[in-house]
Design brief:
alpha/beta, four-stranded antiparallel beta sheet, 15 helices, globular
């Protein structure tokens, strides 16, 4: 038996490729079933976020599963396998276990030590459980990974400082606007990181907050959390005229805001600065928007530049974090007798 992981992340692939290979949350049960059937694995889970796509599997025996998983990942998303071959990594135990523990602890994140990944791993585990793709090995593995992530954060300073994706977005807003307390925010979608960003802006005293979504019910739920109000999705261009900060985090597969719409809105707003963060994967804001005058557009990859300025203090904690991970790894391997 082997625990394996096949994947790519922000270290190995650009956002354009990651967004091509991202899994639709609504189709995860189907994808998990296909992995078990095609790769002949006994257990599996998919971790698909803005920064990574990873397939975790339990292999009853080594029998060409790496090739089968690569073909599945490529063909499921309409990509030629040779296009992603050099972008992928393939780990077997104990490296696969160590990798998951590092990911869950935030040590493999674009923003070192960010906390969102812990919830994303928990969600990936829960979805795999619901799909019937998890057995005794992965129950123990993912529970151990979540414990490790919590231990790393509680016993070190790896999570201190404004370097999470949401906090970096707020820091960017502060660079563009002298006083964000007078600015209006438009939140497009109800994605987790988008909500966190809006909540951070709210905590910093930002002015009015509008929320728009294809579902009025979801928009209302998000608006209530931040004392905001709902803006109709079909009037997004009109709303943009009165907006200073746009946070987009959806699962849509198309551009929700085009360069033409933004150009017209900028004319109506007399070229006042407009700041947009596109956290979506695939991206939902036309990248050409960033070429317009007085418009500042950042996608998920751009956030790394800001995060790097706050990185040094967290780097000092990495050695301690790694020691905790190695201890947890040894305990897990011993407990489930997974030594090769």
């Amino acid at each position: 038996m082997e625990i394996s992981v096949l994947g790519l992340n922000h270290h190995t692939a650009p956002v354009e490729l990651r967004e091509q290979l991202a899994f639709d949350p609504n189709r995860l049960p189907e994808a998990l079933a296909m992995i078990r059937q095609r790769a002949k694995v006994s257990e599996c889970a998919i971790l698909s976020t803005c920064n990574r796509v990873e397939l975790y599997t339990v292999l009853p025996e080594m029998n060409g599963q790496a090739r089968a998983l690569k073909q599945f990942l490529a063909r499921t998303h309409g990509v030629a396998p040779e296009m992603i071959e050099d972008r992928l990594y393939w780990h077997l135990q104990p490296d696969s276990i160590r990798h998951l523990f590092r990911v869950t602890s935030g040590l493999d994140s674009m923003v070192l030590g960010e906390s969102e990944i812990l919830g994303q791993v928990r969600s990936a585990y829960a979805q795999a459980v619901e799909a019937g793709a998890v057995g005794s090995v992965f129950h123990r593995l993912f529970q151990a990974a979540l414990r490790t992530g919590k231990a790393v954060r509680s016993q070190t300073g790896i999570g201190r400082g404004a370097v999470s994706v949401s906090s970096v977005a707020v820091e960017l807003a502060g660079r563009i606007f002298r006083d964000i307390r007078t600015k209006r925010v438009l939140a497009i979608g109800s994605g987790h990181m988008g909500q966190l960003t809006v909540q951070c802006l709210k905590a910093q005293g930002v002015g009015e907050i509008w929320v728009t979504n294809r579902s009025d019910e979801r928009a209302q739920a998000v608006a209530e959390k931040v004392a905001g109000r709902v803006a109709p999705i079909d009037r997004i261009e009109e709303t943009l005229r009165e907006t200073d900060i746009v946070i987009c985090s959806t699962a849509a597969d198309r551009f929700l805001l085009t360069v033409e719409q933004t150009r017209r809105a900028m004319v109506a707003r007399r070229q006042r600065p407009l700041f947009l963060i596109d956290i979506s994967v695939p991206r939902n804001l036309d990248p050409r928007i960033g070429q317009l005058e007085n418009v500042y557009l950042y996608d998920i990859d751009d956030l790394e530049g800001i995060a790097s300025t706050n990185l040094q203090t967290r780097l000092k904690e990495v050695e301690t974090c790694n020691a905790i991970i190695e201890t947890q790894l040894e305990e897990f391997v011993s407990r489930v007798s997974c030594v090769r």
